[in-house]
Design a protein that fits this description.
alpha+beta; about 25% strand; 5 helices; six-stranded antiparallel beta sheet; 6 strands; TATA-Binding Protein
């Protein structure tokens, strides 16, 4: 796993085919009963305007009972919530990327040691570990 402290992005290389990994992600989020708010298929959108790019999809998901606690502390964190996973193809293979909740808390001048931040960190790590292990 790679983490960039400067921009808060965590990256994990996942072995497998892009479509297989995407399906795994959707299945795991559904199994955990986490609400999905949207899917953005950047490659498909690019093709619709005559452009091409590597496979890249964003899953927007979360639990309002958790995210709202952060927004009560600082409403501007809503710029980065709900949570997102980006699955994309790189020259090294398929990568799962997400924003570090600790980094987001710091960005919005909140205590990164808040219980809710730890809970979100643990969830994202758990989900990414499950996706990588299958």
């Amino acid at each position: 796993m790679l983490s960039n402290r400067q921009n808060g992005i965590i990256r994990k290389k996942i072995d497998g085919d892009f479509e297989e990994i995407w399906k795994r992600l959707l299945d795991i989020v559904a199994a955990e009963k986490i609400p999905v708010f949207a899917v953005i298929d950047h490659k498909s959108n690019a093709l619709q305007v005559g452009l091409d790019m590597t496979d890249a999809r964003v899953l927007i998901f979360g639990n309002p009972a958790v995210g709202t606690v952060l927004m009560q502390s600082n409403p501007e964190i809503a710029l980065d919530l709900p949570l997102k996973f980006l699955v994309w193809k790189s020259s090294d293979g398929v990568i799962l990327s997400w924003n570090s909740p600790t980094w987001l808390a710091e960005r919005f001048e909140m205590n990164p040691n808040m219980e809710v931040v730890k809970k979100i960190n643990n969830l994202l790590e758990k989900l990414s570990d499950i996706i990588a292990a299958v």
